[in-house]
Design goal:
By secondary structure, the protein is mostly helical. 47% of the residues lie in helices and 2% in strands. It binds protoporphyrin IX containing FE and 2-acetamido-2-deoxy-beta-D-glucopyranose (7 copies). One of its GO terms (biological process) is hydrogen peroxide catabolic process.
């Protein structure tokens, strides 16, 4: 019993030394940090609610490449030059960099060199989703910022809208996320917008013979083609992923999936695997509160992917460049 206890004590100490994430990590080193983030979000998100969608997507893309380490914010590193994650195709439509930089400046003014950019992404994302009426999840802190950012890794590891269910499951599994997490986190597509190139192959040239994706509802496809993506190479028009409800974090994304109105192939793919389909049906049969609490658990898992803690990485002073 005694030996067992000391093993636990040693494990606990190791945990501290490795500096695992914990709630209120900055409680003594920068007591105002979380408050500064929250106040900035509450002050600005009501005027720019679409940024909540941009931020949660940034949070996802950051965590999927080298862990949640703010590598997505880097403009330049000595190894990659300017070929950082930001310039990779999936990042070309990520927004919200200025918002994170503004929060970082306020936090730096209060406590220089203490709070990581990675934690700011995680906190600002959660607070902005809450500020727009979405779910709340816990954000333990103590992440450190990475030194590497590589465009080709982002291209390989961030799921593409053209991915089939097998690839989606694999790309999530590599990041320790399971099928349930895949269904829940895809539910973030209940808010926000996409650009035509993410899906217009489904309207114009699905298999290379000028055809449509037969799994897309034809009335919806007609609408997209006549009102939104009017030409095959339109790359500027924005389209809501959850039409009529893109500002509300709700279950309608999942209802649309069952109506064959998921916008991306990757959305639609979730209905063609019996396990993911079961989760979709369960979510639709449950309450909004249930979706919120399940979504929160998956976000908490995502925000722990390959985090750097303790002495690895650094606390970046400017989120766009390594110190
Ligand atoms: C399952 C794999 C996923 C794929 C293939 C995917 C793909 C995409 C694509 C292609 C866009 C639109 C980009 C554009 O055309 O502008 C998009 C937007 C978005 N994604 Fe995902 N996504 C996935 C998962 C996620 C996850 C896990 C989250 C967050 C938890 C997320 C949140 C969002 C949000 C909020 C937007 C709208 C962004 C905005 O309004 O600026 N997505 N996603
Ligand atoms: C980083 O790049 C962004 C554009 O992606 C730019 O707005 C910002 O000023 C740059 N920051 C630095 C420090 O170079
Ligand atoms: C970026 O990652 C790719 C794929 O892992 C690798 O081949 C390449 O050498 C990396 N580039 C740099 C500059 O590290
Ligand atoms: C990226 O770096 C290359 C060479 O280092 C330079 O020629 C190019 O202008 C840079 N591109 C941007 C967008 O800064
Ligand atoms: C899914 O996509 C991968 C990668 O593009 C491909 O190798 C695989 O054959 C596809 N699987 C199915 C079932 O279509
Ligand atoms: C469809 O794609 C094929 C193969 O990439 C291409 O040869 C053809 O020109 C495209 N057709 C249209 C109508 O864009
Ligand atoms: C969008 O399309 C225009 C015209 O076809 C082209 O000049 C531009 O480079 C495209 N932009 C992107 C980001 O692909
Ligand atoms: C926000 C951001 O840095 N976007 C970049 C994504 O990549 C394109 C193409 O390389 C750049 O022009 C954007 O500035």
């Amino acid at each position: 019993m005694k030996g067992y206890c000391s093993i636990l004590v040693i494990l606990a100490i190791l945990g501290l030394v490795q500096g695992d994430l914990k709630l209120g990590f900055y409680k003594s080193s920068c007591p105002k940090a979380e408050k500064i983030v929250q106040e900035y979000v509450n002050q600005h998100i009501p005027n720019a609610p679409s940024l909540a969608a941009a931020l949660i997507r940034m949070n996802f893309h950051d965590c999927f490449v080298r862990g949640c380490d703010a590598s997505i914010l880097l403009n330049f590193t000595s190894a990659s030059g300017n070929q950082t994650e930001k310039v990779a195709i999936p990042n070309q439509t990520v927004r919200g960099f200025g918002f994170i930089d503004a929060i970082k400046s306020l936090v730096e003014a209060a406590c220089p060199g203490v709070v990581s950019c990675a934690d700011i992404i995680a906190l600002a994302t959660r607070d902005s989703i809450v500020a727009t009426g979405g779910p709340y999840w816990k954000v333990p802190t103590g992440r450190r910022d990475g030194l590497i950012s590589n465009a080709s890794e982002a291209l390989a590891q961030i799921p593409a809208p053209f991915d089939n269910i097998t690839s989606l499951i694999q790309k999530f599994a590599i990041k320790t996320l399971d099928l349930k997490d895949l269904v829940l986190l895809s539910g973030a597509h209940t808010i926000g917008i996409a650009h035509c190139p993410s899906f217009s192959n489904r309207l114009y040239n699905f298999t290379g013979v000028g055809d449509r994706d037969p799994s897309l509802d034809s009335e919806y496809a007609d609408n997209l083609q006549s009102r939104k993506c009017r030409t095959p190479n339109d790359n500027t028009t924005k389209v809501e992923m959850d039409p009529g409800s893109r500002k509300t974090f709700d279950l309608s994304y999942y209802s649309l999936l069952l109506k064959r109105r998921g916008l991306f192939e990757s959305d639609s793919a979730l209905t063609r695997n019996s396990n993911t389909l079961t989760y979709i049906n369960q979510l639709l049969q449950g309450s909004l509160q249930n979706f919120f609490s399940e979504f929160a658990l998956s976000m908490e898992k995502m925000n722990e992917i390959e985090v750097k803690t303790g002495t690895s990485g650094e606390i970046r002073r400017n989120c766009a460049v390594v110190n």
